[in-house]
Amino acid sequence: MRLTVKLGRNAPRLAHNLSPKSNTRQFSSTLIQPHSSSPTPESKSEPSPKIIFSGIQPTGVPHLGNYLGALKQWKDMQDAAHPSDKLFFSIVDLHALTIPGNADKLRRNRREMLTSLLAIGLDPERSAIFYQSSVSQHAELQWILSCTASTGYLSPLKHGLFSYPILQAADILLHQSTHVPVGSDQKQHLEFARECVTNFHSSWSIPSSSSRPPIFRYPQTISLDSSSSRIMSLSDPTKKMSKSDPVEKSKIFISDDEGVIRAKIKSALTDSVSKFVGEYDSVNRPGVANLLEILAGFSGGGERKTGRELAEELKGESLLGLKTLTADAVVKGLAEVREKFRQFGEDTEQNKARMREIEDIGTRRARESAERTMERVREAIGLA
């Protein structure tokens, strides 16, 4: 899960994907080490299966920053996963309730996000894709964890925002996650989830033994590509690309058609320092650096190149040429995604039935996973 606590006027947009603004505390890790996913030098057995969990808020159609910063990497994880690994990707609509709004808009955003996850290539037969609110155990575990969680990490805001990190911890721990995708600046939130594990086991005197392992695992991090999570606005490259930006040409959505993509990149703000790409310089030439990072996000064929490496290759290229190369790469890279988005979003009875079936598959798998954990939790605390 890409973890987020945004403790300001607004709740997090991309759940588990934004850095905290304030009132956060870094926990030192003095916890039991998680089970290793790799065999010891003496062992030749197969690696232990991974359980990967991540979530995203239902904010409608994702933009390029969302896609390169998280969603494309989710697809890569799915494709690279061992057959025994389990993957859970949740549309965390309970987190979205911290900002009360229009019910019809929330319904539309939920459906658009589900359509987007399918469009980027997540396979409902391989990964459990589900709405958080459809699996009631998430909220049940959140309350149980809140009874033993330290308030030092939390903030005295509205209760929904105050307890937001605990629901995030419940999201992770409920499915016995062994690995959670996070950005380099978000690892402290996973530390809080680990502290919830320690507090719960300690408060309820739950022993650990080889014959009866503890209720929860201590999840490890999967570090996401940090450069991809810093895709900036096309109209103001000193700010991150954002759906809330009123300037339409500042962002590219995964559903944009070829003409729109090319027009937005052509109008992208660069600078007057030079007519050529030159050295990579995100401080003095943020617009050029942003285009290089976008181009890097779609670089394929072997090892992915960085924006800095592309700058070396394209030093003598004109800025117009860079925009053309970037537009070509984005158009090609999003072609299949855009077509799948159109197909899954068709307003036909047949497609609606298919989407309901996909929702049911993901919900059933997530509920089964959640209930296995909650049976042990209820027994351990006296509710069963």
From TrEMBL:
Stretches with biased composition (Low complexity): 36-50
Predominant location category: mitochondrion
Keywords: Aminoacyl-tRNA synthetase, ATP-binding, Ligase, Nucleotide-binding, Protein biosynthesis
GO cellular component: mitochondrial matrix
Magnesium recorded as keyword: no
Keyword Ribonucleoprotein: no
Feature: compositional bias, Polar residues: 19-35
Pfam families registered for this protein in UniProt: tRNA-synt_1b
Top-level lineage group: Eukaryota
Stretches the record annotates as Disordered: 1-52
EC annotation from Swiss-Prot or TrEMBL: 6.1.1.2
Protein name per the record: tryptophan--tRNA ligase
